[in-house]
Amino acid sequence: MRVTSLLRDLLGLEETRVLDVSFDEVGLVVDVAPTWRRPRCSECGKKCPGYDRDRNRRWRHLDLAGMLVQLRYDTRRVDCPRCGVKVEQLPWAETSAWFTRPFEDHVGYLAQRCDKTAVSSMMRVAWDTVGAIIQRVVVRHQKRDPLKGLTTIGVDELSYRRHHEYITVVVDHDRGCIVWAKPGKNADTLRAFFDELGPARCAKLEAVTIDMSAAYIKAVTECTPQAQIIFDRFHVQRLAHDALDEVRRDEVRAANADERGDLKNTRWALQKSPWNLDGVETMKLAKLSNVNRRIFRAYLLKASLVAVLDRKQVNVAATKLEEWISWASRSQLEPFRRVARTIRKHTAGILAYVRSRLSNGRTEGLNGKLRTLTRRSYGFHSAHGLIAMLKLCCSGITLEPVFLTPGFTH
Ligand SMILES: [Zn+2]
Prior knowledge:
10 strands; 16 helices; five-stranded mixed beta sheet; binds zinc ion; alpha/beta
């Protein structure tokens, strides 16, 4: 068997001829060419006259027995009557890539399952390069139009880069997957999603869960006025949670040395729900009710708002919410008076949650997964790497490890 035929079978690339093979300082270099003679335009696929050549271009392919493999070829440019001067189409790689498709798919498979270090060191590529690779993998493997058939969606913002930058993420509540993402978190960011969706599909949306940000409310009411706005319960709870924290901090600051001892280390106990407290924490809170009535009142306000949201009947929840607003307004705790005003303004959307039980957290585990992936993607230089990672792992893309048997191509 000739060595070129052997390699052709080992590489297993479709429509690819092996011309020669040699070693350089890093591994095996295989000279290849497409099986077709006349170059094809990479834009439209039409056979065109050649224009010029780019010498010695190289692509990483999967390692052979642990040795790094590179393909080498003088890429032609074509003069396409329709598209102009373009790079020729290649059977083994996308025109913009420095890696073969099987290599990229393998990276994608690993990136779905392994941490940053494992993917980078095993495939011998920088983490940022992984970000660029998975963007192409997502485009190649996204089978159906993700924006098709949407009826109930959730919109959320994810912060990355130590909370300095944001992306807006849209999830499909019915299928429990991410369907769209874009850098930014203002009204225009979300409007771009509705533009892509188009007026006909916007009109089919029944409900949208969002946080209470004015930007998202604006975009939703403008672009899909018939859809019910539902305020995400965890964002509503967070308002009370943050208000409690503010009260606690103010009180600790104002306390004398003796009092401060009692207020110390109550932060975690205060954040928990009453039924999650352990014995020590229950004691701490009981003591707190004598030592500092303001913090204790704030704690009760927070816990009872959670209880209102747990109510199953809308009319009961509506009455309880009204009671809560008036209690918080009279509480003499400024942070809670602010929360009361916000909640009063958004009552309809909060009660819509009680009716529908839809929230961004409902999409079982998806939110937590998105946040874990955001942390894992730390180090990508562009938001596009992060977005590709979210789509790779949370939009239903299935990838298989790349294996080959004799006579079969990738
Ligand atoms: Zn063309």
